[in-house]
Automatic annotation (TrEMBL):
Organism of derivation: Thalassoglobus neptunius
Protein family membership: Belongs to the DapA family.
One biological process term in Gene Ontology: lysine biosynthetic process via diaminopimelate
Positions that bind pyruvate: T50, V206
Role of this protein: Catalyzes the condensation of (S)-aspartate-beta-semialdehyde [(S)-ASA] and pyruvate to 4-hydroxy-tetrahydrodipicolinate (HTPA).
A single cellular component GO annotation: cytosol
Residue positions of the active site: Y138 (proton donor/acceptor), K166 (schiff-base intermediate with substrate)
Catalytic activity of the protein: L-aspartate 4-semialdehyde + pyruvate = (2S,4S)-4-hydroxy-2,3,4,5-tetrahydrodipicolinate + H2O + H(+)
Identification of the protein by name: 4-hydroxy-tetrahydrodipicolinate synthase
Amino acid sequence: MARKGEMFAGLTVALVTPFRDGAVDEKALRGLVDRHVEAGTDAVSPCGTTGESPTLSHDEHERVIAIVCEQASGRIKVMAGTGSNSTAEAIRLTSRAKEFGADGALLVAPYYNKPMQEGFYEHYRAIAESVDIPQVVYNIPGRSAKNIEPETICRLGELENIVAVKESTGSMDQASQILNGSNLTVLSGDDSLTLPLLALGASGVVSVAGNIVPTDVKAMITAWKSGDVAEAQRLHHKLFPLCRDMLGLATNPIPLKAAMSLLGQDTGDVRLPLTQLSESGVESLRTTLEKYGLLSS
């Protein structure tokens, strides 16, 4: 079956938002985009969970998307995070992302207000009918407090502008239901589950680990798609301890920003209510990066 959102197949990196002196570090942000162009990353996704979107002001949110689109300049796709628990705000942000030249929009499930399934459907339908740009449903009940059920996602897949789902439920059954019941592209929302989801028929990942090891994540996807199962498995088992031991230390992107700092890619502090990784956490992270071969002991 041809799937609607194959333009987002492969590796999309969920970009961090660099901060310096309390403001968005625009120079560092442009550098991140360039780095992923050079690494062969397929797309970048600013203003998602990893980009600390909940603590960006409205002006900052728009500015980050604008900078990423401008720096990408057609060299790499941009899947802009434009979700909100306010439907009107999500429409406004998605419309702005289209104006800036984004290739698509990543729309997190409305959080906190816990809609009914019909509310989820009407929320996404309103955005899809208001803004003519490819849209990716981001289903992450661990953060949004409620699952968008697979039946609802399949129903959303009947809308022209909804092309994919970022699947962050951790449920293989849910992913299978979506792949069975729709022609939506499924993208893994958890690095450790990318290979299992590819085996079910998913097309790629929106990756956190890709911020520091984009070539390895891309190589795993490429190996799977070329039929080299053994190589895909090898890379999965290489990446798995890094993802587990890094992201298990604290809430994303706390350990990721700490890792980037240790690797000489300083992107500044996280914003409150997130706090810096503890000293013991940094030492544990240093060991993890050494074991992977990213740092010398």
